[in-house]
């Protein structure tokens, strides 16, 4: 079983077509060998996590997104009168509704810390602070061992920040000399 290629929708460069063609290729591969679904899901969720910074916020986003999506799909299926009626009559409407709701869910997931605080109040805020400290000081090293891509991304971000600070320092020095 081969590992799925990582998605690169947010990155520069040509890597075998656009997001749609990669999606079609992935669906065909999963259809041909359903055992590849788990590695593809892992790669997709890891890419989303990396796109959100690879830290506590990123994992919170992924978990919130999966939670909201699962809740929406199960709610839609529970509201259907029958499976055949659902598939026959409402499939197109269902696809459009899911697409729209998935866009809404992206925004809900982006704001997961606010949702958590509004649900739990001040204790939730304290819990977020504790979770952040625990993640940064205890869990991050373990997570980066399990997902080396996250460590590489963090190091690359730190290098970019240092380079940016150095460029700004050089500009200030150059400006002060003139």
Description:
The model is unreliable at 6-14 (pLDDT under 50). The protein is mostly helical. Helices cover 81% and strands 0% of the residues. The protein contains seven helices and no strands. It is extended, with a radius of gyration of 21 Å. It folds into two domains: 1-51, no CATH class; 54-128, no CATH class.
Keywords:
single chain, 178 residues, mainly alpha, extended
Can I get a quick summary?
The protein has helices spanning 19-32, 37-51, 56-79, 83-89, 91-110, 112-146, 148-177. The chain is mostly helical and 178 residues long. It has 2 domains: 1-51, no CATH class; 54-128, no CATH class.
The percent range for helix content is over 70%
Multimeric state: single chain
Largest sheet: none
Mean pLDDT: 80
Q: What is the count of distinct domains?
A: 2
Q: Note the beta-strand portion.
A: under 5%
User: With helices defined by DSSP (H or I, 4 residues minimum), what is the helix count?
Assistant: 7
Give me the Rg, rounded.
21 Å
C-alpha end-to-end distance: 63 Å
SSE pattern: HHHHHHH
Question: Which spans of ≥5 residues are poorly predicted at pLDDT below 50?
Answer: 6-14
Q: What is the 3D shape?
A: extended
Topology:
Elements: H1 19-32, H2 37-51, H3 56-79, H4 83-89, H5 91-110, H6 112-146, H7 148-177
